[in-house]
Every structure is written in structure tokens, then in C-alpha cells.
Amino acid sequence: MSDHVNIPSIDALLEAGAHYGHTTARWHPKAKPFLFGKRGEIHVIDVAATREKLAAAAAFVSKLASEGKPVLFVGVKPLARKITKAQAERAGSPYVVNRWIGGMLTNWAAISNMQKRMKKYEDDTGSGRLAKYTKYEQLEFSQEYAKLNQDIGGIRSLTSGKPGAVFIVDPKYDKTALAEARKLQVPVVALSDSNVDPSKITYPIPANDDALKSIELITGVIADAVLAGKEKAGAAA
User: Fold this and answer.
1) In angstroms, how far is CA 201 from the centroid of its own chain?
2) Gap between the Cα atoms of 108 and 72, Å rounded
3) CA atoms within 13 A on the CB side of 24
4) N or C: which end of the chain has fewer CB within 10 A?
5) H helix intervals, 153-207
6) Range in 62-71, 204-213, 217-226, 228-237 the model is least confident about
7) What is the pTM of this model?
8) Cα(226)–Cα(212) distance, rounded to whole angstroms?
9) In whole angstroms, how far apart are CA 113 and each of 75, 116, 117, 123, 170?
């Protein structure tokens, strides 16, 4: 892969259903520049705008990755979890897919403490120190580790609460993640459906965030951009 990221064609975006917005009753007025029109009671997203904004977002993400800055993938919505995790892992990026813990970015001290508890359990298990505890205590530690892994296992590689950027599949669903990123002035890349306010997103990508194929296509491009940036950094080293 070169530092060039392949942006899907208009036909590919249409095939993925990226153009289907929400009902006209649920639209956000600031989404108007990204809308092509209406089909019955459904807003239709302008996929030419999708391509343009996706290309800009991919270029930004690739540049971040080339500078060694992590992009945090967020897809807590049940429909998006599997795709978000798979694409983040493919890109070697941190991710959150089970639940967003309040303060995950804004209260990093608490998250860092959770990471340390995970590491201690792993160290104790590897060194055999865990054996000195009773079976009941070992079970308790094991259960705590499983919960910690579910909550923050995807962000083990994050060493600070301020990633280079946050990529959010559905910024309306994951509004807390969006709010925390904005509070810390962390750039946000996100799908921006017809019911979303794009002015709150640094790099909005107008696209359907409720169709599996649309989510997969867009998330895949962002993962490709991370990989392209990393490859560029590797070539320059």
C-alpha cells in the first residue's frame, strides 16, 4: 500500500447505501449542504460530497499516522461494533466498542489506573505470584480482569488520554465520546448522517450511519488511511 488511499467511487458508495439519510422529519438543518434532495419522506445524501469529505478525512488521518499519532476508533452502536473492532485491529489502532466510560478521555488518571490494574494481573499471572492467593481471591481477580478487558482492552495501546484524533461511526449515538474529544480539542472524524450537526465534527463524512455496508466501507477507508500513514513513516525511517 502506498501513501495514497483509494476513495470509493460514487457507484460503490451508492451500492453500499451511503446515500440514504433519515426521514425528513428527523433531519438537522446544518446537514443541508450535504443533501442531494428527498426521495419520498427520506433525505438523500449527496455522495459527491461524501467522496470529497472522505478524501479530506483520509488525508488527515494518514498524515497523523505518519507522525506516529494514534487514531481512536469508536463504534459502540451494536450494528457497528464488529466492523469497528475488526478495522481498528487491522490498522493497529486503539478502539472502544463495548461501552464508552464517562471520562475515558477527560479523566485519564482513572483510565490509567485501570490499565495498571490490568497489567498487574497479567504480571502476577505470568510470574506465578497469583498462586499465593486463595482460589476465591484468584477468581475475583480473574473476574475483575475480564471486566477491565471488556471496558478498556481496546485502548491498551493508548498511553495518554489525548489521541491524535477520534473516528466515530455514529456521533449522535456516541455523543459523550464526541463531547469529550471536543472538550480536549481532539480532532473528530465521523460519519455525518442527515440527522447530525456537522459543525461539531472536524472532518464530517456525509454518509448513512445505519447501513452495515456503508459503515464498513467508510471505516475501511479510515483504517486504510492509518495503514498508509504508518507505511509512509516506515519508509521514511
Assistant:
1) 13
2) 14
3) 9
4) C
5) 175-183
6) 228-237
7) 0.94
8) 21
9) 23, 5, 6, 15, 28
Burial of residue 117 (number of CB atoms within 10 Å: 0-12, 13-18, 19+): middle
Residues 6+ apart with CB under 8 A from 86: none
- Where are the extended beta strands (E) located within the chain? 20-23, 35-39, 42-45, 71-74, 95-96, 165-168, 188-191, 203-205
| pLDDT in the model for residue 2 | 37
What is the DSSP secondary structure assignment for residue 4, as one 8-state letter? -
Residue 102, pLDDT > 70, answer yes
For residue 205, which amino acid is it?
I
Q: How far apart are CA 110 and CA 217, in angstroms?
A: 34
Region 92-106: mean pLDDT is: 96
Q: Which grid coordinates are listed for 22?
A: 433519515
Q: What is the mean pLDDT of residues 23-40?
A: 92
Instruction: Collect all residues with Cβ–Cβ distance below 8 Å to 179 and sequence separation of at least 6.
Output: none
User: What is the reported pLDDT for 130?
Assistant: 84
* Neighbour-count burial of 123, counting CB atoms closer than 10 A to its CB (0-12 exposed, 13-18 middle, 19+ buried): exposed
- Please list, residue by residue across 46-73, b when 16 or more beta carbons sit within 10 angstroms of its beta carbon and e when fewer do: bbebbbebbeebbbbbbbbbbeeebbbb
159 is written with which cell numbers?
498511553
Q: Nearest-CA neighbor of 21 among 11, 8, 31?
A: 31
Cα separation of 76 and 98, whole Å?
6
Q: Give the C-alpha separation, 31 to 24, whole Å.
A: 11
